[in-house]
Amino acid sequence: MKSKYISESITSNFIDQVKEYAIFAMDANGIIETWNEGAQRMKGYTAEDVIGKYYGMLFTDEDRAQHKPEQELEEAKHQEQFMAEGWRQKKDGSLFWANITLTPIYSEEKQLIGLTKVTKDLTDKRLAEEELTRKHNELTLTNRDLDNFIYTASHDLKAPILNIDGLVQRLTYLFEQKGIQDQELEKLVGYIQKSVNRFKSTIEDLTTISRLKRTLDEEGKEEQVVVQTVFDDILADVMFLSKEFELPCQIKSNFEVKTLYFSRKNFRSILYNLLSNSIKYRSQTNPCQIEVKTFREDDWVVLAVKDNGLGISQKDQKNLFTMFKRFHDHVDGSGIGLYIVKRIVDNAGGHIKLTSKVGEGTEFKVYFPVKGA
Questions:
Q1: In this structure, are 63 and 190 located in the same domain?
Q2: One domain for residues 235 and 212
Q3: How does DSSP classify residue 34?
Q4: Looking at residue 9, what is its pLDDT?
Q5: Over the stretch 196-211, which tens digit does the pLDDT of each residue have?
Q6: Number of H helices, E strands in the chain
Q7: How many CB atoms within 10 Å of residue 369?
Q8: Which of 30, 96, 199, 313 is the most buried (most CB within 10 A)?
Q9: Based on the domain organization, do 265 and 348 belong to the same domain?
Q10: Which has more confidence, 18 or 257?
């Protein structure tokens, strides 16, 4: 008996000293029988305020009108443990977001004799989540407005830029017809033409980004993609690009994973951008060599593209997937290829790993989640 008394005393003192949780016991009908200090601190009621009263007094007026306390009590009686979250009311009428656990108590004869209830105040967590949701919704709306602006601006700017382009070409034609030869004028016309071309390229890039955003917002059509087929389709384009240099690139492939479930159009865009970058940023001293392969790694299908090109410095790697960011000016490029790759991969639940060293080359590994048809 002494041992049992000591055990009960320790348990009682422990519960009373737990101040982060409201802990109380009630009979099978929901009448409160015990009330610890944590409950008083959290809810504002003293033990005298609540003992002998129905625990429904702790719910909001709306919940009581909908008989939530009775429903909760009945559900808890038929479970080993009942857990829920919701608004609860303090003595002063203020509300807090509560995480509650109800546990039935049985006698040695397996008869239900009461329940214990443990409550934790999660108001700060709830408010933080609501604030995060609010900011997410605001960001979504801002992105949508930005996307609409990009689409409208790129569309509305096309006509005047084409007009300027046409006027410059007409001016060049008139110079030639009238035999006007003026080196300064020719330079100025050349500068104007270059500026127009850059403007046209930027508009095209903005259109591509806007189109990508709209495509990602929609349900992408996923299908069984045959890697070799897509690779062969791309090869003709990239080899044509390779021929612009003195020596074409040697591109080797090894596809251990022959198919994956993905959007064919998006997979082609990823592989094309990675291959074309390897060719564009090839070494200017070493013969260009590129290796493309696929393989399984845990729950991922990995597409790896490795080259022996210029490489990327540690500093530049931090901004590699940023829109319009370029690190080499000796070849044409817009700086949106890798941005597009990253957006597609992130949207599909994958990720990208990069290994690169200046003067030795770069390897991109794209991780696709394993999916079944």
A1: no
A2: no
A3: -
A4: 44
A5: 877 776 777 666 666 6
A6: 11, 11
A7: 14
A8: 30
A9: yes
A10: 257
